[in-house]
Amino acid sequence: MATNTVLTFTSTYANDLAFTSGMDPRVVLNSILNHLAGGLNGSHGVSGFNVRDTAVAASGTVTCASVSAADTVTLNGVTFTAVAGAAGANQFSIDGNDTADGAALASAINASVSAAIVGVVTATAASGVVTITAAQPGKVSNAITLASSNGTRLALGGLSNGRLSGGSNDTALAFTL
Q1: Given strand 78-83, what is the order of strands in its sheet?
Q2: Number of CB atoms found within 10 A of residue 139's CB
Q3: 126 pLDDT tier (thresholds 50, 70, 90)
Q4: What is the DSSP letter of 162?
Q5: For residue 125, how many other CB atoms are within 10 A of its CB?
Q6: How far is 126 from 143, CA to CA, in rounded Å?
Q7: Predicted pLDDT at 13
Q8: Angle at CA 160, nearest 5°, toward 158 and 166?
Q9: Whole-prediction pTM
């Protein structure tokens, strides 16, 4: 799970600094040193800084490997069933290879009208691996269940006790100078 770390400086300077993860560390360090130097030489006062990690949504995976008709994935209490031929509500077609089957499962999840799915999770697929991600970040997203009727053909990953994992709440540290 990737987090988004944000570092902000509070000062009397007109343009407070804010940095996010993924920025060039050399640019960040240079900006911090210049900002602190301005506080030390009196051109502006640095009064503190904050470091914050934003909340992260829980996720889990389903890997398709020669899925058979009637195999199921149960997500947050809603069962998605593999079918040969045209798929109906909460079904996914297994008429292709593993990559196509994964794409069909992700599409079925995203198309579901079940209240336990809509606005609760989203799904993406790549090379037969379906990644299911909670729509809302935070530890509460770790409560979403995921099960499979066949652990070989529909192998689950990234779970904790049959639930999506990795969800974390927003955390913050503040330092006053």
Answers
A1: 91-93, 78-83, 72-75, 146-148
A2: 13
A3: very high
A4: T
A5: 23
A6: 25
A7: 46
A8: 60
A9: 0.73
Q: Tell me the per-residue pLDDT of 32-77, one tens digit each, with 9 for 90 and over.
A: 666 666 655 555 555 555 566 678 999 999 999 999 999 999 999 9
Distances (CA, A) of 44 to 14, 38, 39, 40, 120: 9, 6, 5, 8, 46
List, as one string, the DSSP characters of 109-155.
Answer: HHH---TTTTTTEEEEEETTEEEEEESS-SGGGGG-BEEES-TTTEE
* 157 token code pair: 């990953």
> Which pairs from 115-120 meet CB under 8 Å and 24+ separation?
116/75, 116/76, 116/77, 116/78, 117/75, 117/76, 117/78, 120/76, 120/144
- From residue 66, alpha-carbon distances to 99, 104, 114, 155 in Å are 10, 13, 27, 11
Tokens, residue 18? 């804010």
Q: Which residue in 123, 125, 124 sits closest to 96, CA to CA? A: 125
pLDDT digits (tens, 9 = 90+) for 157-168: 999 999 999 998
Q: How far apart are CA 147 and CA 149, in angstroms?
A: 7
Condensed to tens digits (0 to 9), the pLDDT of residues 102-119 reads 999 999 999 999 999 999
Residue 105: CA count within 13 A, CB half-sphere: 38
